[in-house]
Amino acid sequence: MTAQALEQRDFAVVIGLEVHVQLETATKIFCGCSTDAADDEQPNTRTCPTCLGLPGALPVLNEGAVEAAVKVGKALDADIPEQTRFHRKNYYYPDLPKNFQITQYDAPICQDGTLEFSVEGETREVDIRRAHLEEDPGSIKHVRDGTGNLDSRTVAIDRADYTLVDYNRAGTPLMEIVTQPDFRSPSEVRSFLNKLEEVLEYLGIFDSTRDGSLRIDANLSLVPADEIRDDGSISEEVLEAANRTEVKNISSHKGAEKALTYEASRQRNLVQRGKTVEQETRHFNEAHGSTVSMRTKEEEKDYRYFREADLPPLQVAGWKETIDIPELPDARRERFREEYGLDAESASKLTSTKEVADFYEQVAETFDPDLAATWVADNLLGELNYRDMAIEDIDGRLDEFARLVELVAEDEITTKNAEEVVLRRMLDDEMAPDDVIDEEGLGKADDDAVGTAVEEAIEENPDAVEDYHSGEGGALNFLVGQVMQKTGGSADPGSVNGMLREKLDE
Amino acid sequence: MSADLNIFVTEETLDSDADGPLSGKTVAVKDNISTEGLRTTCGSAMLDDYVPPYDATVVERLKNAGATIVGKANMDEFGMGSTTETSAFGATKNPVDPERVPGGSSGGSAAAVAAGEADLALGTDTGGSVRNPAAFCGVVGIKPTYGLVSRYGLVAYANSLEQIGPFAPTVEEAAELLDVIAGPDANDATTHDEGADSDYASAADGDVDGLTIGVPTELVEGADDRVVETFEAALSDLEAQGAETTEVSLESVGHAVQAYYVIAMSEASSNLARFDGVRYGKSGGYDGNWNESFARAREEGFGAEVKRRVLLGTYALSAGYHDKYYKKAQDARAWVAQDFDAAFEEVDVLASPTMPVLPPKLGESLDDPLQLYLTDANTVPVNLANLPAISVPAGEAEGLPVGLQLIGPKFGEETIVRAASAVEN
Fold it and tell me: Where among A303, A322, A341 does a domain terminate?
C-alpha cells in the first residue's frame, strides 16, 4: 500500500451546517411590509422607514415569525426558553441597512433539537445546536458601466464599477438552524437538507420555490479516522485541532453535496501532499462546482453583540403548548401504510409534500385507497412531473380528479383511456373529465352497441371467421381490433373477446 | 437679537389645521426628531441634507393637537454634549446671558422657550439633555419615564436611555405638552399603556402639603455653593408649604457617570453605524474598498465629540473588554435602579440641584470633556433607572438661573408635576 493510499484512508470528513431559511410570514419580521416579492417588482419599493433603517425608525416584533419558529422548534424536538430576546450583531456591509443585524444571541428561540433522516436506507440523527430568529439583509448587485440591461452588466465585485443595493428583501424573517458537526459525508448533508425542507414545508412556514429561501454555510474539516469513537462522536480537542474551512454561498441541496464533495477532495489532496489546510472562508461557485478562497485574511470577526433595547424580551414559556403543528412526514408515512395498506414506496410518494398527502387523503376518503394511491402516486404525479407542474397547480380541481377516479372505479371508462386521454387533456386543456369523454366519445359503449359491432365485424370479415374456425390464433385478435375500432376504443377488450367467441362458437 | 442666539438649525413653519389643546401654540422641535419634508440634521454635517419621509410619532401628535411647529432647534451633534457647542451649525447662546452656553444637548429647544421664540419646545433627554438646558436657561423641562413617550422618529443616540420631553415657561404648560405626546404607540415596542389618557396638567396644583421629599446627600455634596444655596432656599419654601424633607443616601450614584457613559457610548457606536456615506453624508469619489470609503465618509461627516464616543463605545463592546466595561456598566445600572426603588419606599419624590454648576461661558468647557461629563452627575442616574424627573427654576445666583430637579418613581409624573408647581409658588 502506498503512503498516499494510507493518507487517504486515514482521514474522515466532518461537516457542520448553518442553514438559513426564510420563514413564510405575511409581513416582515420587524415592520408591516409584505414578504411577498412580485415577479416584476422594482428595487426598493417594498420598504418602509423600519426595514430601510431610516434614522429614528424602530423595530416591532412580528409575533407570527416567533410562532413559525416555535413550530420549527417543536418539529425538531427542541427546547423553547421561558423568554426569548434579541441582540444586535454589529458589522459593516452595504446590504445591511443599519450596519447591524437584529438577531438572537444568548436566548435563541430553539435550543438542543434533533432531526432524523435516512441516507442510503439507514436512519441517521443529527443534533441541532440552536435555531434563532433574525432579519434578512437586503441584496446587492455589482455592476459595470455601460448600456444594456442591468443583468447583463452584473459582474463579480472585482470587475464592477459600482454596487447597487436593493432593500426589498431586508427584514424578511430568517431562521438560522445550526447543527452539531455530526455529518460524515456530503451525501448525508443532502439527505438532511431534503428532510429539513420537507419538515418545514409540512409546517406550512416555508416556500422552497421562493428565490433565496434556503441558504447554507457549511464547515468542513478532516480528522484522523481513528479519532472517531465507536458511537460516531469526536472529542472537542480533535475537532478544535483540525483546521476547517467555511463554505459560503450554497443555495441548494444538490449544490451542498457538490460544494462539499469538492471541498473534501481539495482538503484530502492538500493533506496527501503534506500541506496544511488553511482555516478560511471559501465561496462556492455553483457554475464551476468548485470553492474559491475569499482571501479575507481577517482575524476572527468581532460582532460586538449586545442587547437590542428597542425590543422588550418576549415571554414564550407557554407557546409550545398552545401552538399546534400538523402531523409530520415520518408519522404520516407510517399512518398511510397502516391505515390504507400502502406499500413503502407509495406511502413515501404520497407524503412527499403535505399538499400531495392532503390530496391523496381526500381522494382515498371516498374511493378504494389502493386505486386512489395508483391514480395519485403513479398517474397524476407522473403526468404533473412531466409537465413540470406540482399538485398546488391543480389546487381547486380536486373534484375533477376525484371524478376521474370515480369514472374508472365504476367502470365508466377504460383505464387506458383515463390515463392516456382524459388525464392528459385535463392537465393540458384544463378540461373537466366528463367534457373530455363527451368530446372524445370515450364513454364505455353499452352492451347493445358492442353487440351490434360484434355482429357487424363477423359479417364483414368472412375470411377471418374462416381462419378462426380453422384454428388460426391471430384471427380472433383481428376481430377484436375491428370491434374496438367500431366502438372508438370505448369497449372493454376483454369482454369483446368473450362476446366474439360466444358468437363464433354458436 | 434672537437670530444671534443661533437657536434654530432650520427655521420653517409647519402649520396645523387641527383644532386641539395646542391650537394657537408655537412649538420648537429639537433637530433629532423626524419631521416629514423638513430636514432633520441632528446638528451634524453628516445629515445636513437629510429630509425624513415620515413624521415622528410626537410630531404627528403635535400636529393633531393643533400646534404650529416653528423650526428645528439646534443641539449638540447627535445629542452628544451638554452645552450645544458640538453642533456642526455653531453654538447656541444662552438668552439669559449670550456669553454663556444654554446647556445641552437640547440647548436650542430651551433657548427657544427662554427667548420667546416658541411657546413650547420638544427636546430629548439621554443623560440630562432636557433638564440641563432647562436649568441653564431658566425654563421648565421634563424627562418622562422611559416608555411613556414614543421614540419612533427620534434619531437614536442611546436608545435604552433616552426619552423625548417637553420644555415650557411654566410647569403647567410643560405638563400640557406632555399630555399631548404621552401614551402608547404601536410603532415603539417599549411604550406602555400609561399616559394613554393622562391629565398631568391638572396635577400642577401646587399642593405639596404632606409630601415627603428625599434629598440624596450624594447629589448635593459636590455642587457649587451658590447653586446649593439657591436649592436650599427653594426647599425651605416647599417646607413652608407643608412638605417634609429628609436626607437619603443613594450609594450607587457615585458610579452612575461612568456607567452612563459606557452604556451611552456603546449604544451610540451601533446606532450611528448606519451613517456610512452610502445613504447619508458625502459619498463616492473615495479611493479604496468600501470599508475605506465608509471610514472616509465618517471621518468627514462626524465631529470630534461624536468620533470620541463612537470609538470609546466600540472599544467597550469589543471582545475581551465587553465584560470589563459594558457588562460592568449594566451591573451598575441595575444597582442604581435598586437604590432608587429603595429610596421611593421612604419618600414620595427626590430633590437635587439639576446641575451642580452655573452655566459656563461659551468655549470654557470644550477642552476638558471629562470635567464636562462630571457635570451630568445629578441627571444621568435618572436615565439609568428609567425614572421621570423635572427641572424647575429655583431662583437665581449671580443673575443666572438655577434649576431644581425633582425625581419620581416610574410613571410618577403627576407627583413631580405637583411638587414642581409648588416650587413656582
Answer: A322
